[in-house]
Amino acid sequence: MIQSTFEKGLEEVSKIPDLEPKILSDLYKSLKNETYIKTPMKPRDKPTEIDPNERPRKYPDENKWIWDLIEDVKAKLVTGLEPL
What we know:
84 residues; mainly alpha; flat
C-alpha cells in the first residue's frame, strides 16, 4: 500500500501543467496543446549498471534513484515487520 501511494504520487505530479508556455505565449506560438512538466517515473524493469567505457556508449537510467528508493522502503518495511 505504501509503494502504491508513492507511485500514485509520482503519477499525479506528472499531470501538473507547465506554466512557461502559458506565461511566455509569444515564444511558444507553435505549441497549441497542453504541455506538462517533466517528472521522474519509476522504471519498468530493474535498471542495470552500465560500463561507461562500453561501445556503443550507453547511459545509465536517470530514474534509477526512484527504483533504489522504492527497494529501500520495501527492505525497511520488512525489517520493521519482523518484530511483529
